[in-house]
């Protein structure tokens, strides 16, 4: 039961009002149509439609979409190539530091190489590991980065005579 003072929702349109509205709209439509030229879909209509501005506009939009997708793909490929080229510049810097005789530079190079391996492709990471493993012991480096301990202060794993002293340290 509704509370006192509240209004009931308005009643829907009755059937007679619906029929009257539909009839009035139909009469208005026929009247307006009487003022317009007849619209016939025939061969000349299709010829004019297919050779006119509507289809030309549709083809222009289609051509623009094809050109945009090609330009987008090209820009994506160039961006990727630029990123890889910049990665290699950073990798060259890090590897040259990692193989330095200076302990501080070597530490910075190893840390930079470890960070670079994280963003490398599989082949790039394999190359970095292949370069550094002989110097830092491949068995000590981890899969997620080159966390091997730096070589002794001698640097490259060779003693003063140039002979390999890694067997002595093992």
Textual characterization of the structure:
Helix content is 65%, strand content 0%. It has 170 residues and is mostly helical. The protein has helices spanning 15-35, 43-51, 53-98, 103-118, 122-136, 166-169. The chain has a domain at 48-150. α3 runs antiparallel to α4. The chain is elongated.
SSE string: HHHHHH
Count the beta strands.
Answer: 0
Question: Which structural class do the helices and strands define?
Answer: mainly alpha
Which parts are unreliable, with pLDDT below 50 for 5 consecutive residues or more?
139-170
Helix content: 55-70%
First and last CA, distance: 94 Å
Number of helices: 6
Strand content: under 5%
Describe the largest sheet.
Answer: none
Average pLDDT metric: 77
Q: In angstroms, what is the radius of gyration? A: 39 Å
Characterize the overall form: elongated
What's this model, at a glance?
The protein is mainly alpha-helical and 170 residues long.
Compile the SSE list and pairings.
Elements: H1 15-35, H2 43-51, H3 53-98, H4 103-118, H5 122-136, H6 166-169
Helix pairs in contact: 3-4
Question: Key features?
Answer:
elongated, mainly alpha
């Amino acid at each position: 039961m509704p509370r006192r003072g509240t209004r009931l929702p308005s009643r829907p349109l009755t059937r007679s009002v619906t029929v009257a509205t539909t009839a009035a709209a139909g009469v208005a439509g026929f009247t307006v149509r009487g003022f317009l030229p007849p619209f016939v879909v025939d061969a000349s209509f299709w010829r004019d439609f297919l050779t006119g501005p509507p289809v030309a506009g549709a083809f222009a939009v289609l051509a623009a979409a094809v050109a945009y997708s090609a330009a987008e793909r090209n820009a994506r490929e160039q961006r990727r190539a630029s990123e890889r080229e910049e990665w290699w510049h950073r990798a060259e810097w890090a590897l040259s530091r990692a193989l330095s005789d200076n302990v501080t530079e070597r530490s910075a190079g190893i840390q930079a190489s470890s960070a670079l391996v994280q963003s490398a492709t599989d082949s790039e990471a394999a190359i970095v590991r292949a370069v550094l493993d002989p110097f830092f012991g491949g068995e000590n480096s981890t899969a997620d980065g080159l966390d091997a301990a730096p070589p002794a202060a001698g640097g490259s794993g060779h003693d003063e005579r140039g002979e390999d002293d890694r067997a002595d340290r093992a």
